[in-house]
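User: Hello! I'm new to structural biology and keep hearing that structure can be predicted from sequence alone. Could you demonstrate with HTH-type transcriptional regulator SarZ? Please show me the input and the output so I can see what each looks like.

Assistant: Of course. The first part below is the input, the amino acid sequence of HTH-type transcriptional regulator SarZ. The second part is the output, the predicted structure written as tokens.
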Amino acid sequence: MDKAALINKYWTDIYFHLHYHHKEKVTHQMIRILQLVDKKTNAGINEVGSSLKVSHNTASEHVKRIIERGYLFKKRDTLDERKVILCLTDLGKEVLHRNTGLDEEKLNGILSELNPEEKGTVELALKLLSERAKKCTSS
């Protein structure tokens, strides 16, 4: 197994065992849109469409449903009043965290079992991967 496949296996094992139990029914596409809004500055409908590889109208319908659920809201760009920016609500942030993050209680339990050097190694490795991933041009 090559390194990328091995790291991917480790990541999926970690997520499988440490994810939160999901409370709300959300689609994979909804989560991808919430992630895009969270990670990309000034994301709007065009960015959603490009990211999902769907038409502007389809992206707009997806966003409309997410707004109706109270996970997103729209605001005007302060530099260009014609542009609408999507923002996460507090509820949207919670839903995104519960559907993409690790259960911090479980994670803290594991971290408490590691010695300081192991904790530092884990943190440094994930920090390096995170920093490099942010530079990756494909999404």
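User: So the tokens describe the shape?

Assistant: Right, they're a compact way of writing down the 3D structure. Reading them back into a model, for example: The longest helix spans residues 116-135.
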